Each structure stands twice: as C-alpha cells, then as structure tokens.
Amino acid sequence: MLKNFGILFGFEWKKIMLRKSTWITFAALAIFLLFLDAAPYFGTIYRDGEPAETRAQSILTDRENGKKLSGRSIDDTLLAEMKAEYQKAADLGQEDLYFHEGFRQYKTVYQAIRQFSRESGFEPLALDEEGLYRARDAYLHRLYDEFGLSDTERTFWEEKDKKTEKPFVYQYARGVEYLVSRDGAYFPYLLASFFIAVCVGIIFSEEHVRRTDQLVLCSRFGRREVYFARMAAGCALSVCATVLLAAISVAVNFLIYGADGFSSMAALYIPYWPDTVTMGRLLWRMFGLLLASSVVTSVFAMLLSEVMRSSIGTMSVVIALLFLARLIPIPMNMRFLSQMWSYLPINFLKEGVYDLRMVFGRLTTWQFAPVLYLFATVVFLLIGKRAYCRYQVSGR
Q: Distance between CA atoms of 137 and 122, rounded to whole angstroms?
C-alpha cells in the first residue's frame, strides 16, 4: 500500500515540478521577497543636503553599538548614562542628532524601551528604573482593557508577567526581532499564499479542464489513493515553497542585522506579549505556525480546485479572501467574531499571534492555533475526498 502511494506521489510531484509556471512563479516571489527584506540596506543618509553615510554603514554602527551594550541591565545606571548623553545633544536638530555619537551609542536600547513607555504617555528619557517598569505595567493593563479580557485571563497574564525577571537584561537582537515581529512571518506567508493560489490550485482542476477525469476509474490504485497522493504532493510543494521563502527572509535579515539575541527575553522586544519566553523559542514557534498555515491554505486551495473545477476560479477566491481578511476589520467588542477572524492565517501571522484573548479560558493563541489548523485541514481533506470520489462516479 505504501509502495503504491509512493509511486502515485512521485508521479504527481513530477507532474507539478515539470510545469514552467511553478518555477517562474516561485522565482518571481522569491526575488520580490529578497528585494523587500534587503531594501533597508541600500541607499544613502543625507546631512545638510550632502551624503553623510550609506544605510549599510548606519546599520553596521547600530549593530556594533548594540553588541557593546548586550548583557547590561536596563536599570538606573544605564538609564542615567543614556540620559546624560542625550542631554548633551538636546539642542541639536534632527539631522545632527542622528549623527551624534552619544545618541547612536544608546540608540538600540532607546528603541527597545520606547514603545511601551510612549504608549503609556511617558518619554523614555524622563523615567528612572522604577518609573520605566511602572510605565510598562500601565501599558500592559491598557492592553488588557483593549482586548476586553476577563478576570481569569487578566490573572493568567499577570502571573506570567510576574515571572519575568526585572530589571530587563538588554541583548542586541535586531535580526531575530524582525523575524518574530508582525511582519516577519506575514510576508513569507502572503507570498506563499500567492504561490499556492497559482501553482497548487491547478492540481485537481486540471484533469476536469482536460477531460481526463474518468481515466482514474480504470487505474490500478483507484480514486482514494490518487486523491491522497495529490493532496500530499500539493502540501509538500506548499511546505517546500514556504520553507524556502522563510529561509530567504531569515538569511537576509541575519546577514544585515546579525543572528544575535536568541537567548534574549522576548518581553523587551515584544512588549505586548507578557511572557517569559526567549526570542529564539519565539522564532521557532513562529516558524511552526507559518508551516501549519501553509498546509491548511494549500488543502483549502485544492478543495476549491476540485469543487470549482477551475484554476482561475480557485486563484481568484484564495487571493480575494487574503485581501478581504486584511481589509475588513471586526471590532474587539464583538469578541467571538473578532477572535475567530483573527485566526485566519493571514490575520493570525500579522496580529492574531499576539492576541491576549484566550480560548475556553485556558488556551493561548500559540496553543489553540495549531489545533484549529489541524482540525480545519482534516475537515477540508474529508470534504474534498467526498467531492472528488462522487464526481468521478457521476461524471460524464
């Protein structure tokens, strides 16, 4: 049985890989992602209308300064040093301030603490150690209110945050930070979805268009084996494309910003996620969710391909759903609809992944999403199998 499945899988895989459209589509998407990630590295920064340094030099300077500060606690000592250097440059204009040595020395630390302090209404340089972490607590409690968390959920996250060691220890982690941010997995998945719509959505519709759908009735292995072999080949292709696109993003960001900071605390760089997890572990979680999203999307596309019997229709529906998911916002006060909408892969990898609302009062987004995607994948597989097998029986 496994040997038969392997033969069918190999045939379906070969059929997909021999299409020129598969290679052309992937190459175009890979080049676009490469350009998107590498774009910040190119260009020139001007001072008083004259070229001062390249963006590559600026990134390298920030990287070196960040590494020098790695391992230091963000406490009164470090804050006082940063404040003293910034006060020396207080009278400088924006352009001159950017090139001030003291400003650039502490720039990466300043950027790390700026988000939650400013969101709480405070300027980072006006805070001491106690005020800084109080501002972070205020920021988190404002998020709890925005998400409309229940008392049980608030208690859960507050207990999580209590386990976070303070003061925070700074570590330079710019490369990893981007990859676990709201864009790090979003763009690879978005481009992988376009690839799935174009190259995977044709797998089942092709035989209907070419009127070869009845040939499988006289095949040795039958409809069921052919169906699962095609599904497996489509999922394998989607996973390979997603892995390669993610690898491009990882390679580019690590080459530009460095691969430092895997052991740094995520709470410093992802302040809207009050957890003790490290950046490295967060990156692996994100990568796993990216692959799960790719699989469920590919199975859904192949289901549409069989039901609609049109590659153009499948591509149109998949791409339309991607845009609709991003364009239609659902207010958080409509909790059930808003929460379910956030679990759509394109929304989940952009924003839903850091949603503090829990499911059944027990499961976080990281825990529930894989279960949901596995369940959806099985449902799509069963519906597709029924549609495929019944159509072959009642076809022309």
A: 12
Task: Please give the Cα distance from 384 to 196 (Å, whole number).
Answer: 17
> How much is the pLDDT for 188?
93
Residue 151 CA: distances (Å) to CA of 75, 144, 361: 31, 10, 10
Q: Which two tokens stand for residue 114?
A: 């700026």
CA distance 160 to 149: 15
Q: Which amino acid is at 241?
A: A
Kindly state the DSSP code that residue 167 receives in the 8-state scheme. Answer: S
Q: Which of 40-49, 182-191, 220-229, 342-351 has the lowest mean pLDDT?
A: 220-229
Specify the pairing of strand 44-47 against strand 50-54: antiparallel
Mean pLDDT on 324-338: 88
Name the phi and psi angles at 332, rounded to 5: -65, -20
3-state secondary structure 234-278: HHHHHHHHHHHHHHHHHHHHHHHHCCCCCCCEHHHHCCCCCCCCE
For residues 289, 291, 296, 302, the Cα torsion angle rounded to the nearest 10 degrees is 160
What angle, rounded to 10 degrees, do the helices at 279-308 and 365-394 form?
Answer: 20
Neighbouring residues of 28: CB distance < 8 A, sequence distance ≥ 6: none
For residue 46, list its beta bridge partners: 51
Strand partners, 359: 363
Q: Mind listing the pLDDT tens digit for each residue in 254-302?
A: 999 988 889 888 888 888 888 888 999 999 999 999 999 999 999 999 9
CA distance 199 to 203: 8
DSSP 352: G
Q: What letter would DSSP give residue 45?
A: E
Residue 207 φ then ψ, to 5°: -70, -25
**Shortest CA distance to 160 belongs to which of 348, 339, 366, 331?**
366
User: For position 395, what pLDDT does the model report?
Assistant: 46
pLDDT tens for 306-322 read 888 888 888 899 999 99
- Concatenated DSSP letters of 107-137: HHHHHHHHHHHHHTT--GGG--HHHHHHHHH
- pLDDT of 251 higher than 90: yes
